[in-house]
Amino acid sequence: METKNYKVTEILHHLGEEDLPFGAVNPPIFQTSIFSFKTFADFKKAMQDETSHYIYSRGNNPTVNLVEEKIAELEHGEKAKLVSSGVAAIAGSMMAFLESGDHVISVRDVYSWTKTLLDRYLKRFNVTHTYVEGTDPEEIERNINENTKIIYLESPTTFSFKIQDLKRIAEIAKKHGIKTIIDNSWATPIFQNPLDYGIDLVVHSVSKYLGGHSDVVAGVIVGSKEDILHIFTTEFQNIGTVPDPFMAWLVLRGLRTLHIRMPIHYENTLKVIDFLKNEEKITEINYPFFERNPQYELAKKEMRGGSGLFSFKIKTTSEDDIAKFTDSLKFFKLAVSWGGYESLVMPSAVSRSSSDDKDKLSLVRVHIGLEEPDLLIDDLKEALLQIS
């Protein structure tokens, strides 16, 4: 990795922890809703600038702010805002820069709730959008209108795992005065830093790798101090997508091992893909760092490695075959989400939008966890034998 390991561990294990109360080694959980003041003057000063004072934990909280400081530094950003879910991060980052009549360009294969935000919620406020494939920056520029305010990216994308040329897209956006936002949950700041390419805002579902233990629901937005303070005052404070202190502490615990977990997810995934690529019942593998992927060189240019999430197609047109395959897996849990220590499987066919689509029916998404890869390979091998 290009990021120096000592720098990452300095952030994860030491940044913001220089003067913990009572000499505590582990930062305490400030499980309080309000903060008091010794004088009228102190109280008035805080009330006039809530962005930088502790008044009410709906705004700032020491446990939450410590996590924000670490994530901002990991993403090479000036400031971060932790929120109650990944979709809250997506919605807050978009809505802060949109007004009625504005237009959004988004890559097509984004997280389903991002699509819901664009297709249903923002539509109520006369915000329109255009979906693009995202693999060709010039396609994005061709779809820019006078009222385009945001280009929304997800690199790689959901299920299809297509990536975007972040540097080129950022250049196009800045030329037209458009804000760029990217979901970086898949690569994490261990493997990709979009702000370095000129992207304005990075969002994460912290429920995924940053938390890493499938026990929190949270999101975060990272960017310039100006943009994050704007989001704080216009969206976060008003809508109240508050991260509670205990959740923030769990995220802090997960962050401690992020730099250790991500390379193992990556190594395990490459080993599993190396097995699958020779299986005759597998017709397609979607992973940026699979050497046959048409975007392999771009992936190596933009990212330092990959995570444990990818998809593949099984040679079948039968939903029953997909059910036999997934139901016979012993070490892959059938579940949504990803990013924890455990391996997961999610067939596209369980989605109502995909069950009647023959092209998507055979598509299966897997998350490769921290188990021994040979265990997972044997499990997949046995499950594929269930398909005639």
Characteristic terms for this protein:
single chain, 388 residues, alpha/beta, Aspartate Aminotransferase, domain 2, Aspartate Aminotransferase, domain 1, 2 domains, 7-stranded mixed beta sheet, 5-stranded mixed beta sheet, 15 helices, 12 strands, 38% helix, 15% strand, globular
Q: What's the layout of helices and strands?
A:
Blueprint: H1 5-13, H2 40-47, H3 62-74, E1 79-83, H4 86-95, E2 103-107, H5 112-121, E3 128-132, H6 137-142, E4 148-154, H7 166-176, E5 179-183, H8 188-191, E6 201-205, E7 219-223, H9 225-240, H10 245-255, H11 258-276, E8 282-286, H12 296-302, E9 309-314, H13 319-327, E10 333-334, E11 344-347, H14 358-361, E12 363-367, H15 373-384
- The share of residues in extended strands comes to 15-25%
Largest sheet, in brief, is:
7 strands, mixed
CATH fold category name of the largest domain: Aspartate Aminotransferase, domain 2
At the first level of CATH, what is the class of the largest domain?
Alpha Beta
* Helix proportion: 25-40%
* Total number of domains: 2
Find the count of extended strands (DSSP E, 2+ residues): 12
Overall average pLDDT: 95
| H and E order | HHHEHEHEHEHEHEEHHHEHEHEEHEH
Radius of gyration: 22 Å
